């Protein structure tokens, strides 16, 4: 099947021979977004972009990655106008706030989000410009995956011959399969990915187990086999991501 522009990144991820092609995509897209927000293109200086970042804000994880990225001026500009937005909203919430009247029984109950200030804070915490944009892109890659699975025999074979997926993204794939595959196609899909996941989880388990054995003095001269990087790959397989990655920083 001839590659289309929108299928190239997913094919590249599958061809990378990674523990999970969606981890590969996630890292690539997130880095692209960090470059867009803080990179040399100076998107943070565009009023329409900062209007969106002011409104959405950033989660704790992406604030940390933005700090690590290293653009002090860019981060300062983003924080400057975002603070103005947050303070304006906060003053409005405070102006309309009325403490709830509670009885003794209410005091014994667990706290809820019925407090409007708490609800406002929770809403701010759940909003992130980078997370939101990644979620939209990720959904399109899910669509592309099942499009290629249905239409491209070579792609399907590469998945069958590959290393499977991390558990996190495998769960997303299974959930997406319910709405993106016909009943007959589901049978083939699950018949392929279940044994694929079992064999690759076992492979990682064996790699980690051999690393442990290598610390036995009797094995000090034995071949490491595939266990030298078993810890980071083993962690990735269970939860996704790249534990051994250092901070992604702005190109100089």
What does this structure look like?
The protein has 252 residues and is mostly helical. The protein has one domain. It has helices spanning 8-15, 21-38, 47-56, 60-69, 72-95, 104-108, 116-125, 129-151, 153-161, 167-180, 183-214, 230-239. Helix 2 packs antiparallel against helix 8, helix 3 crosses helix 5 and helix 11 (183-214) packs antiparallel against helix 12 (230-239). The radius of gyration is 23 Å and the shape is globular. The two termini are 39 Å apart. The mean pLDDT is 93.
Name some characteristics of this structure:
mainly alpha, 12 helices, 252 residues
SSE diagram, text form:
Elements: H1 8-15, H2 21-38, H3 47-56, H4 60-69, H5 72-95, H6 104-108, H7 116-125, H8 129-151, H9 153-161, H10 167-180, H11 183-214, H12 230-239
* Helix content bin: 55-70%
Give the mean pLDDT.
93
Largest sheet: none
Number of separate domains:
1
Gross geometry: globular
What fraction of the residues are assigned to beta strands by DSSP? under 5%
Number of DSSP-assigned strands: 0
Helix-and-strand structural type:
mainly alpha
Q: Give the SSE order as H and E letters.
A: HHHHHHHHHHHH
End-to-end separation in angstroms reads 39 Å
Instruction: Tell me the radius of gyration.
Output: 23 Å
| Count of helical regions | 12
Uncertain spans? none
């Amino acid at each position: 099947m001839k590659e289309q522009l929108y299928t190239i990144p997913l094919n590249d991820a599958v061809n990378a021979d990674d523990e999970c092609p969606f981890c590969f995509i996630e890292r690539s897209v997130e880095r692209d977004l960090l470059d867009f927000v803080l990179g040399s293109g100076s998107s943070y200086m565009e009023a329409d972009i900062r209007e969106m970042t002011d409104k959405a804000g950033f989660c704790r994880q992406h604030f940390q990655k933005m700090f690590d990225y290293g653009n002090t001026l860019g981060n300062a500009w983003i924080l400057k106008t975002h603070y103005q937005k947050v303070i304006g909203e906060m003053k409005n919430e405070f102006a309309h706030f009325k403490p709830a009247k509670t009885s003794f029984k209410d005091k014994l109950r667990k706290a809820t989000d019925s407090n409007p200030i708490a609800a406002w804070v929770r809403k701010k915490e759940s909003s992130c410009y980078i997370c939101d944009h990644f979620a939209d892109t990720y959904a399109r890659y899910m669509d592309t995956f099942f499009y290629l699975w249905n239409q491209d025999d070579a792609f399907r074979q590469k998945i069958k011959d590959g290393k499977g997926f991390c558990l996190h993204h495998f769960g997303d794939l299974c959930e997406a399969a319910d709405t993106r595959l016909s009943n007959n196609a589901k049978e083939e899909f699950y018949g392929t990915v279940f044994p694929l996941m079992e064999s690759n989880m076992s492979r990682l388990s064996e790699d980690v187990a051999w690393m442990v054995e290598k610390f036995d003095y009797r094995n000090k001269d034995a071949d490491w086999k595939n266990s030298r990087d078993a810890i980071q790959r083993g962690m990735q397989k269970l939860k996704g991501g790249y534990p051994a990655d250092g901070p992604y920083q702005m190109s100089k």
